[in-house]
């Protein structure tokens, strides 16, 4: 376990720059995207190139999901931030983004039961709030995604997991990041505690909504205590059913978290739309997040299925402050400029989303030829 020295106030006011950009200037955010290119859990020069390609003055980038401990891992070639070596590896990546004037947050996560024995130290069982295993799923390519049976955390083990997030937040600042985004979305560990389809505990971390959200709020509080509320964002997905992780009352769950985050002074909330649908080949945004946007006191970010037109609409109508783009930012390293000029976009290639190649489907997407615009 890495325990870095005390966090010092940064000399460069990137957080002030973030506040400025979210209020007045930038509206396009690079969403956190797992890319499976961090070999041995370490980001390399190709990772620095990827993020610097997508950085722009005042623009907010959120780094891919980054593990807080050895037990946090569940997917190939994902980065970590729990060792000194990992912190040092992230430094040139962050510096590359800052040289372009970008604001850079690191999303920190723990996959919980979304893992296998192969990814766990000494081949142990993945940890979770439960011992219920995720149902195997047949993927589009016909392969079956299976996760190992998890081990239920005891109540007295939970504070050490909270501490892993606290130390990860500290390490992110040590690496130069401007802040952290705590991954409380989709079907990973924090969400496993929050959702009543998974959480079957009978102690103070299970049962009522207050109890099920306790772990999430302890993690958020720990990060705030360590690095300050103005450096902590949170990602939520109350409507997501990923990895057998759903809730009987997602509206109430989302609002409970929003009100609790307001009390803690969380900088921003990034929230994922419900499942989008296509009508006549066009994505239809359900726009179900307005109640959360109205309730949240900080900066609000939406994600999920947006294009330029829908993003502009969401901002102009006051539905959100910022829009996070994933696939389109992946395929268009200069996405903000393309949106500004209403220029054509590169198409993304799903087959290369998670390949381990350090170039193909990663840093080889072309920039806009401004002479042709």
From TrEMBL:
Q: Which coenzymes or cofactors are required?
A: FMN
Keywords from UniProt, A to Z, are:
Fatty acid biosynthesis, Fatty acid metabolism, Flavoprotein, FMN, Lipid biosynthesis, Lipid metabolism, NADP, Oxidoreductase, Oxylipin biosynthesis
Q: Where is the NADH:flavin oxidoreductase/NADH oxidase N-terminal domain?
A: 27-345
Spell out the molecular function terms from Gene Ontology.
Answer: oxidoreductase activity
Q: Which GO terms describe its biological process?
A: jasmonic acid biosynthetic process; oxylipin biosynthetic process
Q: Which residues form a coiled coil?
A: none
- InterPro entries given in the database record: Aldolase_TIM, OxRdtase_FMN_N, Oye-like
Q: Which PANTHER family match?
A: 12-OXOPHYTODIENOATE REDUCTASE 8-RELATED, NADH OXIDOREDUCTASE-RELATED
Describe the family membership recorded for this protein in Swiss-Prot or TrEMBL.
Answer: Belongs to the NADH:flavin oxidoreductase/NADH oxidase family.
Q: Supply the name of the protein.
A: NADH:flavin oxidoreductase/NADH oxidase N-terminal domain-containing protein
Write the lineage as a comma-separated list.
Eukaryota, Viridiplantae, Streptophyta, Embryophyta, Tracheophyta
